[in-house]
Amino acid sequence: MTLTRSLRVTLEMIKWEHSVFALPFALSAAILAARGWPGPRQLAWIVVAMVAARSAAMAFNRLADQVIDAANPRTRMRALPAGVLSRQFVVAFVVFFCALFVFAAAQLNRMALYLSPAALAVILGYSYTKRFTRWSHLVLGFALGIAPAAAWIAVRGSLDPRILLLTAAVTFWVAGFDVLYSCQDHEFDCAAGLHSLPRAHGIRNAFAVARAFHVVMLALLVMLVIAFHLGAIAVAGLLVVAALLAWEHSLVKATDLSRLNAAFFTMNGVISVVLFVFIAADVLLRR
Predict the structure, then answer these.
(1) Domain boundaries, the chain
(2) CATH (residue range 19-285)
(3) Distance CA 184, CA 74 (A)
(4) What's the rounded Cα separation, in Å, for the pair 90 and 285?
(5) Mean per-residue pLDDT for 263-284?
(6) Using alpha carbons only, how large is the chain's radius of gyration in Å?
(7) pLDDT for 30-47, tens place per residue?
């Protein structure tokens, strides 16, 4: 395999482009913590830590789910079950990026370093939760939701309880769209004995839960705006996010999942970036 193709396959394995889901929330928290842009060094190491953590988590998920992915028609052509990448390579990849994450945390401050193993335990441990609980969607949400709290710690070296509102908002946001995404594996999950809300309650009820999760997300974001005394620009951002979420839910129906990828990949990337832009603008323009 050529170097170019190996790189392409590896990037596909970790879905690197989906870093846009969590990174804008981490940057939002960093700007709130610094009341402006963090220093270039802090910002650079936050980005390195985020990319490293997500890369390790995605690759570890592929390792944990290799047998499951091989049995699922939707995922059997992923790099590991298809034999395009070796298990040894992916293990080495995970170890390298876990080490890079810890190193990046060490460059930020002592608290970030001390908490880095706990963060890794959360983001790697998620991969096994669908084997025993229908609430794995919330665990995935929390794995991404700790990014804002981690970014705050990276800037301040301490934790402000207010930023946990953003952690909770991201948790419910991710859990909501993961519930929708998992609907396409409903039949396979039933046959394989895997747990999910669609399997436990049916696709139609799972859609209702996803909507409820996103309503909770919006309520938490309102609380965030109040807690940090943000202004009209941030409020406008929440209105845009609410409209985008409504559009996302309009794209898919319990009886028609054909546009699920558009709802999952495109809209959620847009939502995270939009919220970051409005929060950043609100903070930076009011300095």
Answers:
(1) 19-285
(2) 1.10.357.140
(3) 9
(4) 44
(5) 88
(6) 19
(7) 999 999 999 999 999 999
